[in-house]
Hints:
disordered N terminus, 10 strands, 12 helices, 15% strand, five-stranded parallel sheet, Rossmann fold, alpha/beta
Amino acid sequence: MKNKILNLIIGTLMIFFIGCEDKKDLKNEINIGVVLPLSGGAAQYGKWIQNALELAKDEINIENEKKLNLTYEDDKANPKDAVHAIKKLTSDENIKVIFGSWASSCVMAMAPIAEKKKVLLFAEALSPNIKNAGEYIYRVQPDGSLYINKLVKYLTKNKSKNIGVVYINNDFGIEQTNILKSKLKIKYSKAYNPQTNDFKSIIENIKELNLEHVLVLGYKETAYFYKQFYEMGLKDIISIYGSVPTENPEVLAIAGTKPTNDLIYPHHFKGVNSKTVTKEEKEFFDKYKNKYGEYPEGFSYLAYEAMKFIIYPSIIKFSNKNIDTDKIKQYLDTNTFNGL
């Protein structure tokens, strides 16, 4: 009987000490959930961002006593999967901050959940509507209107007319198109469903209307539009413009073109060969290439910069016992941050 009682006491003490050890470990960690498209048609963008976050995490954990832990969930750029992902992540009481998603429609689907739970959500998505999605919702990607306005400025300067827009039927495509329609006279606009890869009927309509300029707003699937557009002999007849995701090398490979030759698209990212690259940026480019065998693109640049210079430093200020999202929010709202 004494042995049984002793065993019970020892077992209880073991559970107690293990529990204490777990809590001690958690106090030395910052846990952030990450929601990205890691499979499906937009997986390349998610992978670029994941690479950058992992690079930032490695550096943060070398430089700081309180370690960063990232837990990933795949939303496949699908709003339903994004909702499932954020619910799963926030069921863990230690996760009070989420990075993601890349797709605007996923961010807008997750925003009400983040707001209700007072979880900070840092989106790397373009939709102008994200700025009104909630008090706990932040964006680490410039507003999509910035890029569209670059195209508007270019087209206006060149007195362009007979303009058409082909756009993906989601938050990103609809909002970008609405901005264009408010600033330019659009002769033709056509929405297509995500995952579309046959654009021949749309291209036939464009040809019949004698359009001079066509803006294509979408993701990886736009590669098939460009490819079919060129195959139908319109390359030298109609000027074509892509959106930010067009920089994906897979898009350009499928389309059989280069952005500087046949395709115009706007981006904030100046790239490794730019004459204005700073010493700090060059160091980041080299570190990324050494780790992943290729230079980063715009989305990875933004993710690295956000995690290392904004998100982690802000959290660390208000996480002595628990992460206080209200204090972090106040800090974010009243401070400016320097990146690379």
